[in-house]
Specification:
The chain is of the alpha+beta class. The chain is 59% helix and 10% strand. Helix 2 packs parallel to helix 10 and helix 4 packs antiparallel against helix 5. A 5-stranded mixed sheet has the order 2-3-1-6-7, with helices on both faces. It has a two-stranded antiparallel sheet with strand order 4-5. A hairpin with a 2-residue loop joins strand 2 and strand 3. It folds into 2 domains: 224 residues; 162 residues, Reverse transcriptase/Diguanylate cyclase domain (Alpha-Beta Plaits, 2-Layer Sandwich), CATH 3.30.70.270. The radius of gyration is 27 Å and the shape is elongated. It contains 15 helices and 7 strands. It starts with a helix and ends in a 24-residue tail after the last strand. GO terms for molecular function: diguanylate cyclase activity. This is GGDEF domain-containing protein. It holds the Pfam family GGDEF. Keywords: Membrane, Transmembrane, Transmembrane helix.
């Protein structure tokens, strides 16, 4: 990627005939990009801390404006200056230099692509009135689409290649982040028009941009508040809220859903023998297994300690539990074969022989609301633990509950069988 960007930059540099043209725009865009970073550096640092998924840094206001208005060589230089300063001030050391180099290369390629569109379709002069003809607007819209397609596509491809287990959200980012990128590029287009008409007008871009920058932090703070810090899963409160909403939606449509409660067997022994840091690594590895074994739309949460819960919409509403049991058994087998590699002061450490006990229940067969379904699944979980652990139990094995009467212990079964 970097070599491709360098080769294309070298090609455009050799074709540049006048370095004076666009020099004022280059200086203005670079200065405003640096000023924007300096003013919003605290917000950007916090955004980088609270999320690991791709997020829009709003610097494309300046880089896209450069691609529309400046010669390609100057547009590339704008991207390098703005992104390099942003990394130096806000992203070190969380973003390694090689990742920043790759990200800058994708922006450079996006700028070259957008600039090529403007040069081949439009006049490259956004100072004229659009009423004179639609070509300037057509060029701007196509340049916007090409810019975001090249930049986002290359980043998504890199994430998918480096992490085959990545979810759709991790690869493509949240939908609102993508909408934010489009809005930022639109603001970049208006910036280019303002700079072409009257350079002083570009100062008016900064206030709405800074307000937008702070506003987008709200969703990420909400996401951080709903996420378990050790595993990255939903915490108990957030999972309950999401699950309640999902079950209400399921009830309105007459659909079905299922719940699994999982408990990591003998987790205290892991902490006692290997330490709490090793225990945290085990929990993180277990969370990765759970995410990889369910669908993107399924809700996976940590209830606390070593207990986890999963809501699976559209699964097993008839009380037979065949699909639900298959999912639970698949998870149980994955955990049984899980090994966690740890680096300790005494050398490498491998934690193995892990297991989970699993209880399951379905909606609406086993309960009319989330509380009732969780109660049935929790009773099935304790039946699994009494049966010897590393076992899956479904509510199908339990007698129907009468008010005030606890579940009886189910018939004994062989270890590991449903």
């Amino acid at each position: 990627m970097e070599l491709t960007a360098l080769a294309l930059v070298a090609l455009h540099v050799t074709r540049t005939t006048s370095w004076a043209e666009g020099s004022v725009g280059l200086v203005v865009l670079c200065l405003l990009g640096v000023a924007h970073t300096e003013i919003a550096v605290g917000v950007e640092r916090m955004r980088r801390r609270v999320t690991e998924t791709p997020h829009v840094d709003l610097s494309s206001v300046w880089t896209f404006a450069g691609a529309l208005l400046l010669p390609t060589s100057y547009a590339v230089l704008t991207a390098v200056v703005v992104h390099g300063h942003l990394w130096w001030r806000a992203w070190r050391p969380r973003v390694p230099a090689y990742r920043q180099l790759f990200s800058t290369a994708t922006v450079v390629l996006a700028c070259i692509a957008a600039s090529t569109v403007v040069g081949s379709i439009g006049t490259g002069d956004f100072s004229g009135e659009l009423s004179e003809g639609p070509m300037e607007l057509v060029a701007l819209v196509l340049a916007l689409l090409v810019y975001t397609t090249v930049n986002s596509g290359l980043i998504a491809g890199a994430i998918a290649v480096s992490n085959p287990q990545a979810t759709t959200v991790q690869v493509l980012g949240h939908w609102d982040e993508n909408m934010l990128e489009v809005a930022t590029l639109c603001l970049g287009g208006l910036t280019a028009v303002a700079l072409a008409i009257n350079p002083w007008l570009i100062v008016l871009v900064l206030p709405p941009l800074l307000v937008l920058h702070r506003a987008v932090l709200v969703r990420q703070l909400e996401e951080a508040a709903s996420t378990d810090g050790k595993t990255g899963l939903l915490n108990a409160a957030a999972w309950h809220a999401e699950a309640e909403r999902e079950l209400r939606r399921t009830a309105r449509t007459g659909g079905s859903a299922a719940v699994l409660i999982l408990d990591l067997d003998h987790f205290k022994a892991v902490n006692d023998h290997h330490g709490h840091l090793a225990g945290d690594e085990v929990l993180t590895s277990l969370a990765s297994v759970l995410r990889s074994e369910v669908r993107d739309k399924d809700l996976v949460g940590r209830f606390g300690g070593e207990e986890f819960v999963i809501l699976l919409p559209g699964l097993d509403g008839d009380g037979e539990h065949s699909e639900l049991r298959a999912v639970a058994e698949r998870i149980r087998r994955r955990v049984a074969g899980l090994t966690v590699e740890l680096a300790t002061a005494d050398g490498p450490l491998t934690v193995r022989d892990l297991s989970v006990s699993v209880g399951g229940a379905t909606f609406p067969h086993d309960g009319a609301d989330l509380r009732q379904v969780l109660s049935v699944a929790d009773a099935a979980l304790y039946a699994a633990k009494r049966a010897g652990r590393n076992v899956v139990r479904m509510s199908l094995h339990l007698p129907r509950q009468r008010p005030g009467v606890p579940f009886d212990e189910p018939p004994a079964a062989s270890r590991g069988s449903p």
